């Protein structure tokens, strides 16, 4: 039988071998934690601590400020030293950071554990919100918000995204090998909240050991399937993995819940399990530190707020002269301007690439080869879209479904003219939304 997949896509070098066999290690606690207040999509939470306050590990330091917002918890036990501004690597502007100097080992402020088998849906939903959980695959969308919609529209299926299609990253792979029970527990909790009868864990076939392990662990759950899917980028994009595993299509401009589905990342499901069964809020996450420019690629459990420089040191430091340090994978992750940037809830990896021998080739005019059209997983025409965007024909670009672009970068990757489609699309989307009165 053919391996399940979606139309379009590309096959960049996987580069997983650098770190895929490195077992999870827990990093030492940072001396100082730098906690960006805005770590979730939506409204930033409101700071509820001030310099001089002593805080425990897990104590709330910022409270949600709207429906699409989550609390932020102290990742260490210590003293709030100051609230400073730092350059946010994703939002590209200076934003508030609570600086906490650690005074010792963890003195925990935990929530009461909940037995999910007897708890009600509302109690479990509230716990996910109280624990500050966001999508840990990189999007940082508040997890509880996905389940708010299940109270209005029913979901019959929860999909756990174990594709991990970005080259280099291996943290979800390790979680599926080493935290499989927590992952399944988290999936069962999410299914209960949504009232979903079925769960699927979708895993790319380049992780056969993870597929085997999760199948063995889920063998007693008659309503959970572990599905192997073709290794192809961007298999882990939400709409693509839903189509691959179910043949259901999310309508243009719609959401997965419109077709009865909610999708969460592997790390998110593990965080849900920790929050419900142990009462631990989201103060730590799994991160792959990898790339040809690092001495010892690793998969680590690291406290949120730990400077990237400490992670690089923990992984044996730079191998040669570093060229670029990226937060996340090479296809979609932003390049960091400083390694003093802290790990955030959405940081799935730190990729260190060595300085290239040659200068990158310059951009050339489009040669109309159509390759970008062939690989686009959203069936768009990136070549024409770029031309419309550059001509500032924003309405025409939107008519040609610019807003459906998931910014996967497949078009730019394949383009022989080295055209940076994504940069143009991101800029145009921002300008278009501003012109239409959005943010
Ligand atoms: S970045 Fe957008 S246009 Fe380019 S391949 Fe991905 S979805 Fe298609
Ligand atoms: S891949 Fe590049 S050169 Fe080829 S049609 Fe698309 S934009 Fe033009």
Describe the structure.
The strands form four sheets. The chain has a five-stranded mixed β-sheet. A four-stranded antiparallel β-sheet has the order 2-8-7-4, with no helix packed on it. Strands 11-10-9-12 form a four-stranded parallel β-sheet, sandwiched between helices. The longest helix is centred in the middle third of the chain and has 15 residues. The protein has three domains: 152 residues, Roll (Ubiquitin-like (UB roll)); 147 residues, NADH-ubiquinone oxidoreductase 51kDa subunit (Rossmann fold); 65 residues, no CATH class. Helix 3 runs parallel beside helix 5, helix 4 crosses helix 7 and helix 10 crosses helix 13. It has 439 residues and is α/β, with parallel strands linked by helices. The radius of gyration is 21 Å and the shape is globular. It is built from 13 helices and 16 strands. Bound molecules: iron/sulfur cluster (2 copies). The site of one iron/sulfur cluster has 15 residues, from helix 12 and helix 13.
